[in-house]
Amino acid sequence: GAGRGRGKMAAGGAADAQARFGHSVKGLLTEKVTSCGTDVIALTKQVLKGSRSAELLGQAARNMVMQEDAILHSEDSLRKMAIITTHLQYQQEAIQKNVERSSNLQDQLNHLLK
């Protein structure tokens, strides 16, 4: 009967070892699940940050396009103003010539009337 007792003890020891193994596996699994959860949270944060960055970049690009349009419009306006200025200068020169002619005519008239 002594052999059987030892068998029960060995079986008991094996069950104990199995329980301990199960416990350590559960512990490892819990750790893994926790670390996985942490990783998922970190990844989510990163993705959100990335999408925010993309949003900001898009906004910056739109602003640049708007500014570029404004600059081109300003350039166009300046070109038109330069053309108008040139025309005004020509007109001023023509007026000055006419004033000189008319003062010459006035001098001649005055001379004739004396």
Name some characteristics of this structure.
114 residues; rod-shaped
Description:
The protein is built from one helix and no strands. It has 114 residues and is mainly α. It folds into two domains: 1-49; 51-113. The model has no long low-confidence stretch (mean pLDDT 87). It comes from Sinosuthora webbiana. It is found in: Lysosome membrane.
Helix content: over 70%
Radius of gyration: 49 Å
N-to-C series of helices and strands: H
Overall form? rod-shaped
Please give the alpha-carbon distance between the first and last residues.
166 Å
Count every beta strand, where a strand is a DSSP E run of 2 or more residues: 0
Please give the domain count.
Answer: 2
Mean pLDDT: 87
Largest sheet: none
Low-confidence stretches: none
- Content-based structural category: mainly alpha
Number of separate helices = 1
β content, as a range?
A: under 5%
Main location: membrane
Subcellular location: Lysosome membrane
Protein name: BLOC-1-related complex subunit 7
Family: Belongs to the BORCS7 family.
Give the arrangement of secondary structure elements.
Blueprint: H1 2-113
Could you give a short description of this structure?
This protein folds into 2 domains: 1-49; 51-113. With 114 residues, the protein is mainly α.
